[in-house]
Amino acid sequence: MNRFRYLLIFFFLISSHALHSQLRIEITEGIEDPIKIALVPIKWNIDLPQKHYFHEVMKQDLESFGEFNVLEPNGMLSLPYNEEEVFFRDWRLLGVDFLVIGEANRIEQSEEIVISYIIFDVIREKAIHRANIHGSIKSIRKISHNISDKIYSKVKGISGIFSTRLAYIDKPSSLDKNYNLRISDIDGFNDTILFSSSQPLMSPSWSPKGDRLAYVSFEEGTSRIFIQEIPTAKRRGLKLEIGINSSPNWSPRGDKLAAVLSRDGNPNIYLYDLKKNTWKQVTDHFGIDTEPDWELFQHSEIVEQLFHIHDHFNIVSQMKPQSVEQLAMVLAIIRPAKRSLLGESWQSIQKQVWLKPIDNSYYFKKSHAMSYALAIVVQLNLLVDSINFSN
What we know:
Layout: E1 6-10, E2 35-39, E3 43-45, H1 54-63, E4 68-71, H2 88-93, E5 98-106, E6 112-121, E7 126-136, H3 140-156, E8 165-170, E9 179-185, E10 192-197, E11 201-206, E12 212-217, E13 224-229, E14 235-237, E15 245-250, E16 256-261, E17 268-273, E18 278-281, H4 300-303, H5 313-319, H6 324-334, H7 346-352, H8 366-390
Parallel strand pairs: 1-8, 2-4, 2-5, 3-5
Antiparallel strand pairs: 5-6, 6-7, 8-9, 9-10, 11-12, 12-13, 13-14, 15-16, 16-17, 17-18
């Protein structure tokens, strides 16, 4: 299964200053008893100044969802960088649950650096992970996100998403006529405009390897699907059909795209072969064919290949969604703010799941959850179709 993580955000930035400001997603409150972790500043054994500090980036990552409380360096009794310098009693006195130490060294005659780090469970007084990460001196933020992912995985038991990249559409202000297709790191850094148009853009979709984006543009006066390469910025339009050309979604191998076309009058799902440049119709019905075989959500090998829910098979299999709306409610309950609804009836969940939490903790709005649910359904249909083709 592909291990890269990418996220799509669909919204417009309306404020007049947004054109020059960095994308920022902030969660102001977290859980009542967060995990306390100490991120000792990585020892910098390199004769060049640091532009970013590992522990500061990791602190921002781990505290961004409100599940961790990071101890500041000025509150530490010592600043160890190797295992021999770690005294667990000192960290227990500070109430620390987990400890991360490490050092950065430059590889000889190279612009590459290697970061050696260790994650400790303070209560159990043992190292639970140790690793070396290689990268360029300019990639400190990327390396930091990778370490944050590993910390989250080792502590929480599920994959971290701090290396996630965002793809989104914005329109900075009413004075700016352009719509922009942008990508950035999950924390808003490395924000880049890939394409701008005076006509609407929508539905960006990452390829499995993260090297291409498919999206819909109205620049030709009608909807058309384009693919853009991230490294080179080259773009190509898919074969245009009469009517709707929308909702592109990549196949697991990245050699096909699923999309919704209405060339015969009714919206149906089609597959586009990127090598042959041809469309193949998958569904044919007087209704809008997006309903999957809901029993497939009881199979872990299927759920583990679907974005947004691949790490939550236990919740999906327990709730047994039977409609797009119920799948949207599953997505909402995956979030900590609504996790308490797990086990209640669908009727009870429906009454509470879309209400804004009193403590302003993060939750899913219905419109967002429904959009993600529909995207999962399209991906599931595509996955099943690819399995059928291979048999």
